[in-house]
Design goal:
Blueprint (H helix, E strand, L loop, with lengths): L1 E2 L2 E7 H4 L6 H9 L9 E6 L7 E7 L4 E2 L3 H13 L6 E5 L5 E5 L4 E5 L3 E5 L4 E3 L2 E3 L1 E6 L4 E7 L8 H12 L9 E9 L2 E8 L4 E3 L3 H13 L8 E5 L2 E10 L2 E10 L14
Parallel strand pairs: 2-3, 4-6, 13-14, 15-17
Antiparallel strand pairs: 1-2, 3-4, 4-5, 6-7, 7-8, 8-19, 9-12, 10-11, 12-13, 14-15, 15-16, 17-18, 18-19
Length: about 270
């Protein structure tokens, strides 16, 4: 499946019964582009543990376990609905906490992202003698770490230079967990372009849902956005963010956008 270009492999482990100790290995094998199916991540569908409709366990393509994934959760909400695991509104258990999904249309799904456990409008980082005014957010607990950088002319920079900057910020000592890095530039009123360097993928991805949510949270704290139906244009498609903001607190971050089922089928020889 893919959501705004962020692509995932979904395995229903309630049917497959793959032992948990093999999930990381499965992610590495199946997510390897050109060598296998290829994806940004693997999502394992499991039985719920505390009253949700089902549980989503997310693995990055390097085999590391992720807290949650916004576009992945939108895709899994569609999977849950179309496979009879949940209704048009659903509660999905994730490592970062429960995520609530809603079917908007046949292909468009909205989720409520985990509320920020950490949110800072300004968390400056020095790279090669240049100070970047990063914002910082962790969505959920344990939180997904995101650095947000307003960079008005990043589209005019050499792609490799932007890549190196993203990688440097991703490993900055200021972010002890490492961080996904989202570059933001304003296109109009409540309209922004975004580009995210994702940790564990260690490259730019076509879209990052939690990155967009974190960016709007930071922009709202800075007074750069009202946080209502904010259009975020990523390279893979357009996402929309709305949130609740009161007294320097942000909650109820809603992420809405397209989903697509690319293919369904079987694969073999993944254990070699």
């Amino acid at each position: 499946m893919q959501g705004a270009g962020n692509d995932f492999i979904v395995v229903n482990n309630m049917e497959e019964n793959i032992p948990e100790e093999l999930w990381s290995h499965l992610a590495v094998r199946l997510c390897a582009r050109r060598l296998s199916l290829g994806a940004d991540g693997l999502m394992i569908v499991e039985k719920p543990q505390h009253g949700g409709d089902y549980r989503m366990v997310f693995y990055n393509c390097d085999g590391s376990r992720g807290e949650m994934c916004g576009n992945g959760a939108r895709c899994i909400a569609r999977y849950g609905y179309e496979n009879g695991l949940a209704g048009e509104r659903q509660r999905v258990e994730t490592t970062a906490g429960d995520v609530y999904g809603r079917r908007c249309s046949e292909t468009e799904y909205e989720i409520r992202l985990n509320d920020p456990s950490v949110l800072q409008a300004h968390s400056p980082v020095d790279i090669d003698g240049v100070r970047y005014d990063c914002g910082y957010a962790e969505l959920g607990s344990p939180g997904i770490p995101h650095a947000v950088v307003e960079l008005p002319h990043w589209d005019n920079r050499e792609r490799n230079d932007l890549f190196e900057l993203g990688r440097a910020l991703r490993y900055a000592p200021s972010f002890p967990k490492g961080a996904n890095v989202t570059f933001v530039r304003q296109l109009g009123e409540e309209h922004f372009a975004v580009l995210t360097y994702e940790r564990c993928v260690e490259d730019f991805t076509l879209a990052c849902g939690t990155g967009c949510g974190s960016a709007v949270a930071v922009l709202t704290l800075r007074g750069r956005s009202q946080g209502r139906n904010v259009r975020m244009d990523a390279e893979g498609g357009t996402l929309h963010i709305s949130l609740t903001h009161s007294h320097a607190q942000v909650r109820d971050i809603l992420l809405r956008g397209p989903t697509r089922i690319v293919a369904t089928g079987e694969t073999g020889e993944v254990w070699e």
